[in-house]
């Protein structure tokens, strides 16, 4: 069974007496800053695995839950910008990260937690975007359209089979994900000792190139997210896991939006 760079999908139910397929994963960086996770695949049945029951998941379930989560994030972001309460960005971001860790390590799907994450990250992104949009009018809309374009573009790429999610592709993506995370952390540490660190986030040519690479990694991560969702539908996992899949897709979309916004700010900077 294939894996995904998104740590959320590693907790989909494994094969048991109910006939569900085995799910495992190798995890990556949520929004480019989380730790890399590598998990082995196995076809054996875990005797401690609790059998999951419920109506089998459908594509409509995943689409609906993802749309609800994304819509909530968008509304929360717009309200934050319109109210001028951009100071909520940092606490909302902290809440989002904490909730994300709870969802990942709780190992159970949760609609309230998924919606809480989406709402919190919407507020955080709204707070981050507002001052940047004031400096570069229209950049928020451009970043939003860019994120949606990449999402649907990669969905077309996945559905047409232009890029297939093979074990070799997964290994390449895992290496790219780890490399990006290591570079981000190294640049952050270096910035404490030298101005601009390694120049990966200072808006210069190297920063623009690095941002493009990160966007590329995030975009191709969507392919593995789509593959995990597709496998969940084929395996007939319970419908409640549609909230878990929606959460996983949201983490990638949040990361993608932040990187696109960052790149646009570089390109529009003086």
TrEMBL record:
A family per Pfam: BaxI_1
Key words of the record: Membrane, Transmembrane, Transmembrane helix
InterPro entries linked to this entry: BaxI_1-like
Transmembrane segment boundaries: 72-105, 111-132, 139-160, 172-194, 206-223, 243-264
Keyword Membrane attributed: yes
Highest taxon, organism lineage: Bacteria
Keyword Membrane: yes
Name of the protein in question: Bax inhibitor-1/YccA family protein
Organism: Pseudonocardia nematodicida
């Amino acid at each position: 069974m294939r894996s995904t760079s998104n740590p959320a999908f590693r907790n989909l139910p494994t094969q048991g007496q109910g006939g569900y397929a085995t799910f495992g994963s190798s995890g990556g960086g949520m929004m480019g800053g989380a730790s890399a996770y590598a998990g082995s695949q196995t076809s054996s049945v875990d005797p401690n695995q609790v059998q999951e029951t419920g109506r089998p998941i459908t594509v409509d379930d995943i689409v609906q839950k993802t749309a609800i989560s994304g819509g909530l994030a968008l509304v929360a972001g717009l309200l934050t910008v319109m109210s001028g309460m951009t100071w909520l960005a940092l606490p909302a971001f902290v809440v989002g990260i904490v909730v994300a860790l709870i969802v990942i390590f709780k190992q159970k799907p949760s609609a309230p937690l998924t919606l809480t994450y989406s709402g919190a990250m919407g507020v955080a992104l709204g707070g981050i975007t507002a001052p940047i949009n004031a400096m570069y009018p229209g950049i928020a809309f451009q970043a939003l359209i860019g994120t949606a374009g990449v999402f649907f573009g990669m969905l077309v790429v996945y559905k047409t089979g232009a890029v297939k999610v093979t074990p070799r592709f997964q290994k390449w993506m895992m290496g790219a994900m780890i490399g990006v995370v290591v570079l981000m952390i190294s640049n952050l540490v270096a910035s404490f000792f030298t101005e601009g660190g390694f120049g990966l986030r200072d808006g210069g040519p190297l920063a623009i190139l690095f941002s493009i690479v990160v966007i590329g990694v995030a975009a191709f991560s969507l392919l593995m997210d789509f593959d995990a969702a597709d496998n969940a539908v084929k395996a007939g996992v319970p419908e409640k896991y549609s909230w878990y899949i929606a959460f996983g897709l949201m983490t990638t979309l949040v990361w993608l939006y932040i990187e696109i916004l960052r790149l646009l700010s570089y390109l529009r900077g003086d």
